[in-house]
């Protein structure tokens, strides 16, 4: 089971360090068999911990260059980062990244051996058209993406569920993950208003290999609390 925390534009370098210190202490004490990942803002990047993989929310497909406001391979290497989010709906919809550019990012960081969490999801108007429309929309987001890449993790995040408090129904999650599983053999995460009241139910859904968590991950105690309901019994 993978638990990934996406801070988005929250936390500072100091608060991220304090967060990682606290979360690491909680994880070390519990010795959960989970893979735990944290994606802080670029200003708060730092090396991974023993129990926590630290990754970048975004990176430009170049080692360095004249790309104002971006970070590239050389900056990530400084912090020993080899994990990156690519294709998040906020990058697609708010910041205008098209599939061609997203695929270029994917190819660049695949070439450099990064672990990639690749995000896909549909807006509400597509979901309302029925499941066939959803499936077609999602598969278009895999154009020129190597779905056999060994360090690929897919995150399915219905856009209409992100930050709204309204997670997709278990049946919808199960159907969508089953559709993705037809071709994808790598782990598939669910993201979209994951919280302590629905995590156990989501974790039980077939083909859900973990969760990508936004607002519910911003406090280390609350993020850790998501793991407790799905943790194996202590012996």
Notes on the protein architecture:
Helix 1 (13-30) links the parallel strand 1 and strand 2 (35-39). The chain has one domain (2-230): TIM Barrel, CATH 3.20.20. The model has no long low-confidence stretch (mean pLDDT 94). 34% of the residues lie in helices and 15% in strands. The protein has 235 residues and is an alpha/beta fold. The protein has helices at residues 13-30, 73-78, 89-93, 99-111, 124-127, 131-140, 170-181, 199-203, 220-227; strands at 2-6, 35-39, 53-54, 83-86, 115-120, 152-156, 188-191, 210-213. Helix 1 (13-30) runs parallel beside helix 9. The protein contains nine helices and eight strands. The protein has an eight-stranded parallel β-sheet with strand order 3-2-1-8-7-6-5-4, covered by helices on one side. Pathway: Carbohydrate biosynthesis; gluconeogenesis; Carbohydrate degradation; glycolysis; D-glyceraldehyde 3-phosphate from glycerone phosphate: step 1/1. It catalyses: D-glyceraldehyde 3-phosphate = dihydroxyacetone phosphate. Pfam families: TIM (PF00121). GO terms for molecular function: triose-phosphate isomerase activity. This is Triosephosphate isomerase.
